[in-house]
Amino acid sequence: MAIRVSKRILRLLVLVVGSLVFFSLTFSNNESVAAINDYVSAQASNMAQYVGLQPEVVSSKAAKEEEKQRMEAEKAQEEGKVDEVLDDEAKKLLSYADDASHSTVGPKLANATFVTLVRNHDLHAMLESIKNVEERFNSKFHYPWVFLNNEEFTKEFKDTISAAVSGEAEFGLIPEEHWSYPEWIDQKKAAEARKKLEEDGVIYGGLESYRHMCRFESGFFWRHPLMEKYEWYWRVEPDIKLHCDVDYDVFKWMEDNDKVYGFTISIHEYKVTIETLWDTTLEFLKEYPQYENKDNMKDFISDDGGKTYNLCHFWSNFEVANMNFWRSDAYRKYFDYLDKNGGFFYERWGDAPVHSIAAALFLPRDKIHYFPDIGYYHPPYNNCPLDKAIFEKGKCTCDQENDFTFQGYSCGNKYFEVNNLKKPEGWDQFQ
Ligand SMILES: Nc1nc2c(ncn2[C@@H]2O[C@H](COP(=O)(O)OP(=O)(O)O)[C@@H](O)[C@H]2O)c(=O)[nH]1
Ligand SMILES: [Mg+2]
């Protein structure tokens, strides 16, 4: 009996002492008190908004703070310093709204141009391309067009082309340093390399001009004085076709959807033309690991986690892209690194694999866009919409049997797979 009474007293004692310790700790700790006060104040404020009361009625501390901020803002506005009190997000929103190119009212254009590298003797092939692009797209928008050449354009070329485009046409001569051998290139070695590739029957293997062209399209077109004022471009070559109407502003779509690089056809490269391109890229990445984007699309260009290149690339005869990417530190350094290596001349590195490897490594994958709706032909391949609704909406005239996207030599299937894209219905009948 004596033991049972003392146990009960003991329990009571523990309870009383425990409570005292808890309360003394809680209320002697200033931080805890402040935290509780803040929490209560925030809850009061939320509750007040919920029931329609002014927060200051409930929490005088929050009210004072808000009042102080409001007075500061008003004062700054009076002094014309409104920018300084806006936060970054608000600034972005305002500049977006102010930018006329985002307006849905009126035909406001993006800061964009078509761009074509072309020779005088390609005039008629060029007129065919222009006719297609104008009929299917540009007659609705009148974007300007920049023509570039390593020789002076003739008067006939300029007059005929100017009459054919619906926007302004500008004609530029390429500066010699953008279309010649850099001093570190061993020209004898380059000539031997051309001879070898020609003997091996590689397409354009023996052509010196083709190499200057690929180097120019990789590293210089976006630096040409006529291109400097633009942000976006659509590359067009002679002898291409557009198979479908494009009724929306493709440039603005890219801009509004936060894209950087758009393509229509992807394909495997001839390995003999880029034997050392990937190893050179890996050396570059070792030196500049910071440029590899953590959300990149490396799985499009490599099947073994980056050990080797699978030869997939976006076919660069069509590109709708933002030149700020080529103008970025990452790409400039990459191009310079490749250029120093000499592979544009000692092999036959194409601008397509160079652009594609850069886009796949340095950009987050969601910045790259495949246009399923732009029916496109560059000899000998087609991007012909397989989706019935897209085909009909665009009044396309191509034969879906000739769509290249899912055929063996294309990389379209790979692109759809690595990006978890839904393939158009019946795609497997067009393999
Ligand atoms: N001005 C100029 N343009 C060229 C030259 N070689 C090729 N091009 C252009 O470069 C682009 C690619 O050349 P192309 O012959 O179509 O090569 P492919 O598409 O790889 O078969 C096209 O826009 C051509 O007009 C050249 O020597 N001078
Ligand atoms: Mg071509």
UniProtKB/TrEMBL annotation:
The keyword RNA-binding does not apply. The keyword Transferase applies. It comes from the Eukaryota. Pfam families: Glyco_transf_15. InterPro entries: Glyco_trans_15 (IPR002685), Nucleotide-diphossugar_trans (IPR029044). Keywords: Glycosyltransferase, Signal-anchor, Transferase, Transmembrane. Residues 62-82 are annotated as: Disordered. One of its GO terms (molecular function) is alpha-1,2-mannosyltransferase activity. The active site is at E319. It is a single-pass type II membrane protein. It is found in: Membrane. Belongs to the glycosyltransferase 15 family. This is LAFE_0G13190g1_1. It comes from Lachancea fermentati. The lineage of its organism: Eukaryota, Fungi, Dikarya, Ascomycota, Saccharomycotina.
